[in-house]
Amino acid sequence: AARRELPYNILSGVSVAHHSYLPPAARPTDAELVGEPKPKLQTATSRPREHDLLSGRYVRGHEERTAADKARERRRAAHSFWETHDYDPLKC
Question: Using an 8 Å Cβ cutoff, are 19 and 6 in contact?
Answer without folding.
Answer: no
